[in-house]
Design goal:
Helix content is about 45%, strand content about 20%. The chain is α+β, with helices and mostly antiparallel strands. The protein folds into two domains: about 90 residues, Orthogonal Bundle (Arc Repressor Mutant, subunit A), CATH 1.10.10.10; about 130 residues, 2-Layer Sandwich (Endonuclease, Chain A), CATH 3.30.870. A seven-stranded mixed sheet has the order 3-9-8-7-4-5-6, sandwiched between helices. The protein has a two-stranded antiparallel sheet with strand order 1-2.
Amino acid sequence: MDTLRPDSSGLAVVGLSERATQVYLALIELGPATVFEIARQSGVKRPTVYRKIEELEQKGLISQHIEGRKKYYLAEDPEKLISLIKGEEKILAKLLPYLKTLKGKGYFRPSVRFFEGRGGMKMICEEILKDKQELLSFSSPEDLFQVLEDYFPLFVERRVKLKIPTRVILRDSTKARERKRLGPKELRQVKIIPPTHEFHSMILIFGNKVGMFSFRRGYVAVLIENPEIAAVQRAMFELIWDSLPQ
């Protein structure tokens, strides 16, 4: 199969304008990027970039997320272009090999999102409910329930209703033993480590994502989306889990 490199109007076959094509190609090369970075890479002026981003979002070709005070945009997989055309599959099939070579330059960089405050922690918990996969966690339950006392009990109810199981490793405390006692009816398995292992934070592992909460000094949360990072964190969890008594 021949590989076709698109020019500035090469994706008109899927209904993209010349400037939208430039913005889309720039995003594929860059990975997650700000409007300023997109404008610099594509050569399109920033006011036009904003308009073309709307055009691409309407077609489902890009997504966005916020890190701190900055908004980042990310190109969806080029395969999604297939669903936008009828009768022009051969032309698009020639475009895809070139687009995939660009994808390797930045597309697979881990997505890292930073959040501040209780609201950010709640947003990460909401992603757990959307993913609906087993949740693994290291946690300090006393800190967790102190910081998210108005939210976490409701989160647990919703998790159980969605039949999402969880396994947690907790620092020994009154709250930890309560979580273990209530575990069977809340789809939760609990193992407890001595309180000498002191920490005031939480790690959440679900799907291809790893969330980290700090319950001290400002309540900071980080969410990393990357299969390799999630896999090594899951392996570490399993190693510790298997070493602990029931």
